[in-house]
Amino acid sequence: MRRTLLAGLIGLIFGTGIAISGMANPAKVLNFFDLAGTWDPSLAFVMGGALVVTAIGYFYVLKRDKPVLEARFHLPTNRKLDTQLLAGSAIFGIGWGIAGFCPGGAIPALGLGESSAWIFVGAMLTGIAAARTVRVALQARTTQTA
């Protein structure tokens, strides 16, 4: 119960920050990407601030033996830049540039009444389900041929 409440509180803080910073507003995000037109550099400061806070947090948190509510840290172990990572990053960036939403901005936008966020989140969930279906089918196919 404590973990769920803490996760909810952290999500609320994150969503509030996203909403206040303007990252839940697709027009503001698209203006950030429009370098030759109505460029709005303010999101660069939001992202820079997030990186600074994250770096400081990692520095202090990783000095602990374990997290507060877990037995151990669950950190990524794969350090390779492979095709799957690069393709996923490219798809994420293209989608963000087209829609003006990323998952972190779209979910708080649902609560702000942003109608296009509902379309984006629906498409995102459909894409996740399709990707999972394709991955399972490919793994099954690989297992059968092996």
Automatic annotation (TrEMBL):
Record key words, sorted: Membrane, Transmembrane, Transmembrane helix
Transmembrane domains' residue ranges: 42-62, 83-111, 117-138
Pfam family, one: DUF6691
InterPro entries per the UniProt record, alphabetical: DUF6691 (IPR046513)
Protein name as annotated: YeeE/YedE family protein
Lineage: Bacteria, Pseudomonadati, Pseudomonadota, Alphaproteobacteria, Hyphomicrobiales
